[in-house]
């Protein structure tokens, strides 16, 4: 498959260099590689940090700025960032009011962010965590540790970032993030597989009239494969699935910086009720043309 790249080994380095060159409000750090606001650390404000495997741009580095993330740690393509990246980035952005780590619910992300959290605590940084698990396509799966963190990540980074910008405390920002996660639900579909540059071929195949319903952001299996008929029908099926799978019971871990330990808390997601006001985010994982996904808003 043809791609506009030079060398598959240099894709991430060149992408980050271009991002920093185009946006002087960002600073690209090396050894280890991470990105921060150019004015970081910002004194008197809680700092927000997130990260994950590259290949989902603009997430996360594209969401750094005033009222959003203070820094982000990009891993290699579809690979979690290492604990040293997370640690160094957090140390760089900490303005004295604490650091909130926003973590998508994937095994590698959880492991590496939790390791970095403990290192930060041992270094005297006030730190806590929010885990995002909004994908209703997964409940119990061989492929994941529960529901995956997907589109709700963007809303949480924006809304909690705004709270941090207005001066909310670390505890208040964390509580808002957990509340938003608990109320967030998402579902995705794909008509074809992505191609990781280093692999050079699609990660799976679908028939011409087939879609993967509930696909993960790395191409993980969804609920099922089903015939694709039309945009309107597909959006109807997605909304039905969101509404039918609103209730979800699980236990999430978070770091209690006062106790210096991990705490577990049951967090039941609540289904939507008639009359609820919602934010409807129509998202594109990267392969969908602007024409198609804007048309889905009216479906």
Automatic annotation (TrEMBL):
GO terms of biological process kind: glycerol catabolic process
GO terms for cellular component: cytosol
Record has Aminoacyl-tRNA synthetase as a keyword: no
Residues covered by the DhaK domain: 7-299
Entry GO MF terms: glycerone kinase activity
Domain of life per record: Bacteria
Pfam families listed in its UniProt record: Dak1
PROSITE patterns per record: DHAK
Key words of the record: Kinase, Transferase
Stored InterPro entries: DhaK_1, DhaK_dom, Dihydroxyacetone_Kinase
EC annotation from Swiss-Prot or TrEMBL: 2.7.-.-
Entries under Gene3D superfamilies matching the protein: Dihydroxyacetone kinase, domain 1 (3.40.50.10440), Dihydroxyacetone kinase, domain 2 (3.30.1180.20)
UniProt xrefs under PANTHER family: TRIOKINASE/FMN CYCLASE, TRIOKINASE_FMN CYCLASE
Annotated protein name in UniProt: PTS-dependent dihydroxyacetone kinase, dihydroxyacetone-binding subunit
Encoding gene per record: dhaK
């Amino acid at each position: 498959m043809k791609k506009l790249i030079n060398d598959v080994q240099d894709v991430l380095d060149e992408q980050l260099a271009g991002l920093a060159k185009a946006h002087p409000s960002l600073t690209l750090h090396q050894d280890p590689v991470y990105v921060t606001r150019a004015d970081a650390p910002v004194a008197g404000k809680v700092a927000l940090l997130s990260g994950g495997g590259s290949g989902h741009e603009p997430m996360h580095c594209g969401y750094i700025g005033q009222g959003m993330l203070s820094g982000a740690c990009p891993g290699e393509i579809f690979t979690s960032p290492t604990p040293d990246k997370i640690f160094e980035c957090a140390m760089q952005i900490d303005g004295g009011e604490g650091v909130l780590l926003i973590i998508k619910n994937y095994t590698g992300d959880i492991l590496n962010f939790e390791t970095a959290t403990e290192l930060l605590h041992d270094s005297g940084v006030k730190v806590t965590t929010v885990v995002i698990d909004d994908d209703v396509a997964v409940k119990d799966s061989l492929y994941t540790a529960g529901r995956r963190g997907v589109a709700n990540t963007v809303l949480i980074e924006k809304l909690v970032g705004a709270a941090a910008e207005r001066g909310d405390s670390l505890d208040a920002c964390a509580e808002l993030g957990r509340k938003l996660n608990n109320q967030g639900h998402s579902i995705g579909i794909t008509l074809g597989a992505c191609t990781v540059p280093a692999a050079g071929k699609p990660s799976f195949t679908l028939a011409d009239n087939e879609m993967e319903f509930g696909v993960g952001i790395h191409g993980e299996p969804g609920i099922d494969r089903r015939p694709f008929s039309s945009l309107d029908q597909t959006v109807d099926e997605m909304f039905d699935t969101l509404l039918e799978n609103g209730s979800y019971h699980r236990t999430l871990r978070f770091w209690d910086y006062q106790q210096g330990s991990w705490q577990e808390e049951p967090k039941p997601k609540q289904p939507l009720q008639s009359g609820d006001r919602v934010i409807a985010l129509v998202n594109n994982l990267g392969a969908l043309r602007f024409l198609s996904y804007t048309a889905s808003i009216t479906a």
